Amino acid sequence: MRRLETECVGSCYAAGQTMTAELNDITGFRGEAIVELCLTDYRNFAKPLFRPGFLGDKWPTIDFYVELCNVAGSVPYFFAQAKATGRALTKKSHALRISAKKRDIERLLRLPGPTYIFGIHEPSQRVFVRSVHRGTPVKAMTQIPLTHELTSGNLAVLHNEVRVFWQTHDHKPQFSVFA
After folding, report:
1. Domain ranges in the chain?
2. CA–CA separation, 20 vs 26, rounded Å?
């Protein structure tokens, strides 16, 4: 069994890639899957609250375009960047340590609409969220409070926050040259 695991890891990555790079890639890949599972979790709801679309590695700023489900008359959405980590969480931890660069924050602030960073603790498969909104300091973001875990309750809060944002902002132009 151990030999097969080693062969699989070795065959999945380019020759010369270090084990640390391999583990970072695996952690990131798993983190993105964990975000999708978290956002589509409907155990405590009649239906899923979100419909995430993974955008792939070609988008430098965002990893997910996420639509809200169950909103009559519109399709509110938000953008998110995922940051997975395998760093230990202890009983004394108050925040999940992540690595979001200043450039990540600048890019998220330029996007119209709600934007978030999802911090994924890959070993426990827990997801934490932090908003990047007007007033967010333009500097690297290194932690997300553990109180911002995407529990069922916080999934409902996130859904409501994005829904209210789009209810109070006109999301269609008033006119167009191409009308």
Report:
1. 16-167
2. 10
